[in-house]
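Section 3.1: Structural characterization of target chains.
Under the original work plan, the team committed to producing a structural model for every single-chain target entering the pipeline before any wet-lab resources were allocated. The record below documents one such target. The sequence was received from the expression subgroup and is listed exactly as submitted; it comprises 155 residues.
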Amino acid sequence: MDRDPHAWARLGRKLKQARLAQGLKQSDIADEAGVSLASVQSAEAGTVPKSRMPITLSPIAAALGWRPGSVDVVLQGGEPYLDTSEPAWRDVPVQQQIDEERLAGIMTTAMVRATEHATAAEIRAATRIALDELRRQGYLPETDGVQPQQDSANS
């Protein structure tokens, strides 16, 4: 569990902003979440928990319309996933097809950003595993046994 006081302060600010944006009182959130008013106040104050993640945070976040996992995302510096009737990804135009090399590049970049101590070879191996799984599930066409050429400058 993250014990960074800045992360918890950020979470508290985000919870309060979400509540105020909806024109709700702390007591409204407490009632909706089925938690005490003190729990809502503590969450909005950004109080760092003593030992474990407070069990009241998920219901508070849900009462604000946040999707599961949003508390952890905000603690890590991201934005909460909002619970909307139409998922946000539906608003994004989708390319009908993406070639495997481009997808591999996108995945590799994402893995580099998400990992600190992995080597380039480990990241490429993980990317190949993910591409194989996407191929197995039918999201990518089967290869004819010939793998795309690897750029030796990037190896």
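Residues 52 and 83 are 25 Å apart (CA to CA).
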